[in-house]
Design a protein that fits this description.
The complex is a heterodimer of chains A (about 550) and B (about 100).
Chain A (H helix, E strand, L loop, with lengths): L1 H14 L19 H24 L3 H6 L6 H12 L2 H14 L1 H11 L1 H16 L4 H5 L5 H34 L4 H48 L5 H11 L16 H15 L3 H4 L8 H32 L23 H50 L6 H25 L6 H24 L5 H21 L1 H5 L15 H17 L4 H19 L10
Helix pairs in contact in A: 2-10, 2-15, 4-10, 4-14, 5-6, 5-14, 5-15, 6-14, 7-14, 7-21, 9-10, 9-15, 9-16, 9-17, 9-18, 10-14, 10-15, 10-16, 11-14, 12-17, 12-20, 14-15, 15-16, 17-18, 17-20, 18-20
Chain B lengths: L2 H10 L1 H34 L2 H4 L11 H39 L1
Helix pairs in contact in B: 1-4, 2-4
Classes of the chains: A mainly alpha (about 550), B mainly alpha (about 100).
């Protein structure tokens, strides 16, 4: 089972798609207990629990809980967004892709980055001006409150659930690998810590956990890059010359290879990453934590800078690893250079840390990787809890009549519920091939959440009927095509050939969602549709000027 | 003064049209400056990968692909800086004027 998993993962890696996967790690085996890593991680846990205690004292209203009262600065929020976006597998997965494939890894990394400027130019300020707590606030701004809000909340929860499974399974494997803890225990630890952060500290604690982790990740990554790069005298020519000599593909690592050989699949992947990012509920939510549109813009500027910088660091790490790790028999099973890496295909960066920084540095980087997973799942849990408590409970079930205290109670129950669900799913999906879940996460985000979000902000003609039809079309086609794709149809269900040849469905499902939304809206001649079009005027002025937008709360 | 009144004032203020027009145009141009090179790059990798495999200099292992990819990341970030410097300055000033005039 383990062997076939490794083979599967290796196959996916070659397709370049396992890495889409923040978190889809190779099959791994348990390592000896790593004391220094655990000690450093404990320091992180104690510090963040301290912050949670402090944050709990400041989390009194629902606005505090969901958005930290809108009192986060642009710079802080930029770090937190970067933290939300840079999961453990960004560090592990992207370096291993560059390590294995050279330039193809860079192409993938650029695709993962390029959505950020677009989010700033087209979405950031409108999101801030229109939203209050969740992205459903915007989607249902002038449409039918109960139907569209319910649908948007389920869209959020679907994405949150898929992404949580990816992260939890990644956490279990990574921790078993790096810390030498049991898989189930690791999953339970992550789940419980996440519940504590979110339930008691809400957005304030989640944001600060994210900020600390982002600093650790940026600092640790940069230090490792400097240590590794210094071995090449900080010369790119020297570094790349040695990498070409060391890699079995030789000079081919310097040019585009198989990853982009199929343009349709490349475009579909880029759609999923670009527009899926703009439909991730935990990322959208971050835009409501700042006091105004000005700070929202600033936060994307900082986030984009940190993410871009880190991605470039990751590229250098991957190339350095080709030379430093790829030629050292100590990092290969049985001492066979070019064979299987100890710990699996996602390990180059960890081996690199050990090689240039020793055991202490390896321990530090392992602790950072664990902290990273913890921070990302907390953000997801918070997004899920707000969809349940704010959208479904307070707005749909109680029709906005719930008191703040009632809503707070539901948020806490929802956070605990999501934590328990995440633990259960993490254990259930142990040893499963979960690469398809990443395609599903980004596919659903790009085909369900993104179209309704962007059209509700930009298109006057959007009606409730159009949004529902389009959302359902996007959801059904995204899920259906992923099931028919190689990742599920062949690798999970064992059929010989995939019905749908591409792993990412976005090129079809997103287009379909837009077309059906348009069709459903323009044919809608109801009185409600006319009213909705009329209401666009008010929404438009608010989106553009911030008139009436939710401001910062007392803090 | 009622909210509707304020909105009507904003709508009829020529500065509002100016703000929306300028900002929308600026955002679309910058988006194209990011997306056109990115998708061109993707198409080159798919249809003519040899172009990016050309060495930067005679005898160098470094190819054109790497600095171009890095430029897209750095350039993308610099463009966000360009956008916010204008949006948080010129556009926000205009926006404040519009809101203030509507309250009168």
């Amino acid at each position: 089972m383990k062997r076939s998993l490794i083979a599967l993962s290796a196959g996916l890696l070659i397709a370049g798609l396992a890495i889409a996967a923040p978190g889809a790690l190779d099959g791994v085996q348990k390592q000896p207990l790593n004391v220094s890593a655990i000690a450093m991680f404990m320091v992180f846990v104690i510090a963040t629990l301290g912050i949670t205690k402090w944050a709990a004292g400041r989390t009194k209203s629902t606005a505090d809980f969901y958005t930290a009262g809108g009192g986060i600065t642009g710079f802080q929020n930029g770090l937190a967004i970067a933290g939300d976006y840079m999961s453990a597998a960004t560090l592990l997965g992207l370096t291993s892709l560059v390590y294995a494939k050279g330039f193809d890894g860079f192409i993938y990394t650029v695709s993962f980055f390029i959505g950020w400027p677009i989010i700033l130019f087209l979405m950031a300020e409108r999101l801030r001006n229109l939203g209050k707590f969740t992205f459903a606030d915007i989607a249902s701004y002038r449409l039918d409150q109960s139907r569209i809000r319910t649908f948007a909340a389920f869209g959020s929860l679907t994405v949150v659930c898929f992404y949580l499974i990816v992260q939890m399974v990644g956490a279990g494997q990574l921790i078993q690998l790096l810390f030498g803890l049991e898989y189930n225990m690791a999953v339970v630890c992550v789940g419980i810590l996440m519940m504590v952060y979110v339930t008691f500290g809400g957005m304030v604690a989640t944001t600060w956990v994210q900020i600390i982790k982002a600093c650790l990740l940026l600092g640790g990554g940069t230090a490792l890059m400097l240590l590794a790069f210094s071995q090449f005298g900080f010369s790119f020519e020297n570094l790349f010359g040695q990498a070409v000599a060391a890699h079995k593909a030789g000079i081919k690592i310097m040019a585009p290879g198989s990853l982009m050989a199929d343009p349709v699949s490349a475009v579909s992947l880029s759609f999923a990453l670009l527009f899926g990012t703009a439909g991730l509920p935990h990322i959208m939510m971050r835009f409501f934590t700042v006091p105004n549109a000005k700070e929202a813009r600033k936060s994307v500027f900082y986030a984009t800078g940190f993410i871009g910088f880190f991605f470039l660091v990751v590229i250098i790490l991957g190339i350095s690893a080709i030379v430093i790790v790829g030629q050292n028999p100590a990092f290969f099973e049985g001492g066979q250079v070019g064979g299987k890496l100890i710990g699996g295909g996602n390990m180059p960066v960890m081996h690199l840390a050990k090689s240039v920084g020793g055991d202490i540095f390896l321990g530090f980087l392992s602790a950072v990787a664990f902290a990273t997973i913890l921070a990302v799942v907390s953000g997801l849990a918070l997004a899920g809890a707000s969809a349940i408590a704010h959208d479904l409970y307070a707005r749909v079930i109680k029709k906005g009549e719930a008191t703040s205290a009632q809503e707070m109670k539901v948020t806490k129950i929802a956070s605990v519920g999501i934590g328990l669900t995440a633990i259960a799913l993490g254990i259930l999906f142990k040893d499963q091939n979960i690469a398809f879940l990443v395609a599903l996460t980004f596919g659903v985000a790009a085909s369900v959440n993104f179209p309704v979000l962007i059209l509700s902000m930009y298109w006057k003609g959007l009606t409730t009927r159009g949004a529902l039809w389009g959302g359902i079309a996007g959801l059904v086609s995204a899920v259906g095509l992923v099931v028919l794709s190689p990742a599920v149809w062949v690798k999970v269900l064992g059929n010989a050939q995939a019905v749908f040849p591409y792993d990412h469905p976005a090129i079809i499902s997103m287009t379909l969602a837009f077309v059906v939304t348009w069709l459903g809206s323009v044919t809608d001649k109801s009185a409600r549709a006319a009213k909705e079009a009329e209401a666009f005027e008010e929404q438009y002025i608010r989106a553009q000027t911030g008139l009436g937008a939710a401001g910062a709360h007392a803090h | 003064m009622s909210q509707q009144n304020i909105q009507a004032k904003i709508r009829s203020n020529p500065k509002f049209a100016e703000l929306v027009g300028k900002r929308t145009r600026f955002a679309i141009i910058l988006s194209l400056v990011v997306l056109v090179p990115y998708y061109s790059f993707m198409m080159v990798t798919a249809f003519n990968p040899g172009l990016l495999a050309k060495p930067l200099a005679e005898g160098s292992v470094m190819t054109w692909g790497w600095p171009l990819a890095a430029l897209m990341v750095v350039g993308g970030w610099l463009l966000t800086g360009v956008y916010i410097s204008r949006a948080n300055g010129e556009f926000d000033d205009l926006n404040q004027q519009i809101l203030k005039e509507a309250q009168k």
